[in-house]
């Protein structure tokens, strides 16, 4: 079986390359992120969090030896389900891109002659497009809540007494913002690809024949 690389000069081949690149970028920016909340007390304490973003903190902090202030700071929020859903969508998209690109290059003749393969490709693309839009929406909501719970006004302090809570510094969420944008961009790429794949199916070809016959 000869490799047919000319498919990557066609829209369906080009779209698969773009989808593969953007899928990897989307989940990579999520799993490689490490954030922190820095409590700038007399004895500094840094709370770090990363994928899958199950933020659990129950720590006693020293606000100052002269005041004998040792309150306990608490955070209890779990965003792991949304983060895993988003990353799983990216991994599924990546694996399907690799699989279908092998089909395109090694079995192109069968793809063009077997009506079932284009239909399967079309419906799988619909499925993954739905995965992207739903997981991106869920992850965008989780990220908004993550920013909220890491704000100084939300963090719970126990046993603070007359002491003043120490200032905090929170890491930037810019790379996670990018991951959300990439998620919706992936949905756009997969939804747009449906038109090119539809033209490969018998539905489009029968419609073209019917239109030609009427003329």
TrEMBL record:
Keywords: Glycoprotein, Membrane, Transmembrane, Transmembrane helix
Gene name as annotated: LOC108562370
Transmembrane residue ranges: 20-40, 85-107, 119-140, 178-198
Lineage of source species: Eukaryota, Metazoa, Ecdysozoa, Arthropoda, Hexapoda
InterPro entries: Marvel, Synaptophysin/porin
Sections of the chain in a coiled coil: none
PROSITE patterns listed in its UniProt record: MARVEL
Record-given protein name: Synaptophysin-like
Family: Belongs to the synaptophysin/synaptobrevin family.
Compartment annotation: Membrane
Recorded topology in the membrane: Multi-pass membrane protein
Domain MARVEL: 7-202
Domain of life, per lineage: Eukaryota
Species whose genome carries this gene: Nicrophorus vespilloides
Pfam families registered for this protein in UniProt: MARVEL (PF01284)
């Amino acid at each position: 079986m000869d490799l047919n690389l000319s498919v990557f000069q066609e829209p369906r081949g080009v779209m698969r390359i773009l989808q593969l690149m953007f899928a990897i970028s989307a989940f990579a920016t999520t799993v490689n992120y490490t954030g922190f909340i820095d409590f700038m007390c007399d004895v500094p304490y840094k709370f770090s969090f990363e994928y899958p973003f199950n933020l659990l903190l129950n720590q006693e902090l020293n606000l100052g030896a002269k005041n004998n202030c040792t309150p306990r700071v608490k955070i209890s929020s779990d965003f792991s389900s949304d983060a895993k859903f988003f990353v799983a969508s990216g991994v599924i998209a990546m694996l399907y891109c690799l699989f279908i690109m092998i089909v395109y290059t090694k079995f192109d003749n069968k793809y063009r002659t077997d009506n079932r393969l284009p239909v399967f490709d079309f419906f799988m693309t619909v499925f993954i497009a739905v995965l992207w839009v739903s997981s991106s929406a869920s992850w965008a909501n989780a990220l908004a809540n993550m920013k909220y719970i890491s704000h100084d006004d939300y963090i719970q302090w126990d046993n603070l007494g007359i002491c003043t809570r120490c200032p905090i510094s929170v890491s930037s969420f810019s790379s996670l913002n990018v991951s959300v944008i990439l998620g919706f961009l992936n949905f756009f790429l997969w939804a747009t690809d449906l038109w090119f794949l539809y033209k490969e199916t018998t539905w489009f070809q029968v419609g073209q024949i019917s239109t030609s016959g009427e003329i």
